[in-house]
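Hello Y.,

Per our agreement to keep a running log of every chain we model this quarter, I'm adding this entry. I've kept the format consistent with earlier entries: sequence first, then predicted structure.
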Amino acid sequence: MNNFVKRSISGIGFAVIMLAAFLTGKYVFGAVMLFCLVVMMREFLQMTCGKDYKYSQILSILAGATLFTLTYLYKGFNFPGRLVILAFVPVFILMINSLYVKDKSKFDKFANLYTALIYIAVPWSVLNFAVFNSAGEFNGMLLLSFFCIIWGSDVGAYMFGMALGQKYGKKLFPSISPKKSWIGFWGGMLTAVSVSIVLYYIGFFPIEKGIQRFDLAHCVAIAVLLDVAGVYGDLIESQWKRHYNVKDSGTIIPGHGGLLDRFDSALIAIPIGIIYLVALDSMCL
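Predicted structure for the entry above:
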């Protein structure tokens, strides 16, 4: 019961913070998302590099934070887009710093410093393209809708998987995540599509030109894409954790683990959703 209470309280607190980030304005959004990025990168680097190359880990996180901040300023504050290239400066410093590392016995771990940028910082910076229109106006409803679908998929997959998937059917990816099943996958898909339909009828999925909404067919298509991409995102993080024999990426959310555990699906799913909208020319970048 104590664990249930702890999980419930921390889960509610996490939900409140995320809702505040999406609904209160661009300053809260920027602060919360930047904090999440730094924590996720730190969790990943702690898992993969441990106590090795601490200074280089800081440089990697700084590079990721710089990329997010410059993208945020570009989309929300009319910051010259050409200056986003300045995000490469700390990356170059990180590369040069590798030459001066004295102990090269564990140098293979250095690759994880770059992986953290590609795996976490780049997709997380793309979130800015979902909340700002071409005029720099903030609207977090689209991104909130994406997260509702992703989290709905996670809940549906867990419920169907635990109720039926452990006894019936085949495992989805037993070598990486033994508990995931095909029944859980289709249950998550069903839940994701159901959430997207509800969001459609209550008026979510806004676009830049006013109150017009996406067609229902596109809402369902987005849900399917987010669900599939989210499953891959979950499996990708599971593969990292299994390789390093880690149960949770961190402990920042009591009873739930780290932020990377909470956003692993979103790191793959949300960029895919945005690419889909761009391909349809439904969102002006």
